[in-house]
């Protein structure tokens, strides 16, 4: 639907590799199976049957049109859009910053107030990179953060995440 309208997909180069290696045709089943394993004990049998539809709806998955592996600025309708390489709980976590409105789309680099950072995919090295990403983001002039998971939040979440990750590193 978006592709037919001319939309282009941009993502981290590591995501592109992952999509190609995991065969996009089977991605819906792959993601659905992951969610069933992670949340299966919370789902009724009926809910589990409807999980794929709930996760994807009528969205069509596709390979990326453009990849990035470093900070990139694109211009859309005279507005600068900053795509920032901000590894979070995974190495391919870009954030998108709109300086004109001071809004940060944080993806999986920042989680909303009711979520602790998801660290199950990482280790000390990844968590240290994550802290570096958060410290970079803390220097931006941000009014509102749209996290990858959870409700809108403000910059207090950045310092909360840094504290959480530093404590985790100290424990391991």
Describe this structure in words.
There is one protein chain. This protein is α/β, with parallel strands linked by helices and 172 residues long. It has two domains: 1-68, no CATH class; 70-171, Ribonuclease Z/Hydroxyacylglutathione hydrolase-like (Metallo-beta-lactamase, Chain A, 4-Layer Sandwich). It contains six helices and seven strands, in the order E-H-H-H-H-E-E-E-E-E-H-E-H. It has helices at 13-21, 27-39, 45-49, 51-56, 124-138, 156-171, and strands at 10-12, 66-68, 72-76, 79-85, 94-98, 103-111, 144-149. The strands form two sheets. It has a five-stranded mixed β-sheet, covered by helices on one side. A two-stranded parallel sheet has the order 1-2. Helix 5 runs antiparallel to helix 6 (156-171). The chain is globular. 20% of the residues are buried.
The profile of the biggest β sheet is: 5 strands, mixed
CATH C-level class of the largest domain:
Alpha Beta
Major β-sheet strand ordering: 3-4-5-6-7
Number of domains: 2
Instruction: Report Rg.
Output: 17 Å
Q: Kindly state the number of beta strands.
A: 7
Number of alpha- plus pi-helical segments: 6
Query: In CATH terms, what is the fold-level topology of the largest domain?
Result: Metallo-beta-lactamase, Chain A
**Low-confidence residue ranges:** none
The residue fraction in helices comes out at: 25-40%
Class from helix and strand fractions: alpha/beta
Under the CATH scheme, the architecture of the largest domain is 4-Layer Sandwich
Principal-axis shape: globular
Distance between the termini: 46 Å
What is the CATH H-level superfamily of the largest domain? Answer: Ribonuclease Z/Hydroxyacylglutathione hydrolase-like
Strand percent estimate: 15-25%
The mean pLDDT is 85
The helix-strand sequence is EHHHHEEEEEHEH
């Amino acid at each position: 639907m978006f592709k037919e309208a001319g939309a282009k997909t941009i993502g981290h180069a590591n995501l592109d590799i992952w999509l190609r290696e995991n065969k996009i045709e089977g991605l819906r089943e792959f993601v659905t199976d992951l969610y069933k394993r992670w949340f299966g004990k919370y789902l009724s049998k009926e809910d589990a049957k409807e999980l794929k539809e709930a996760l994807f709806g009528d969205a069509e998955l596709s390979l990326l049109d453009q990849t990035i592996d470093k900070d990139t600025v694109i211009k859309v309708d005279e507005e600068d859009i900053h795509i920032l390489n901000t590894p979070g709980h995974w190495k391919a976590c870009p954030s998108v910053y709109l300086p004109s409105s001071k809004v940060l789309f944080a993806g999986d680099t920042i989680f909303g107030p009711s979520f602790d950072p998801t660290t199950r995919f990482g280790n000390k090295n990844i968590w240290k990179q994550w802290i570096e990403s958060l410290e970079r983001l803390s220097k931006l002039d941000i009014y509102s953060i749209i996290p990858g998971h959870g409700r809108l939040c403000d910059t207090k979440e950045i310092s909360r995440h840094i504290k959480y990750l530093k404590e985790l590193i100290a424990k391991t």
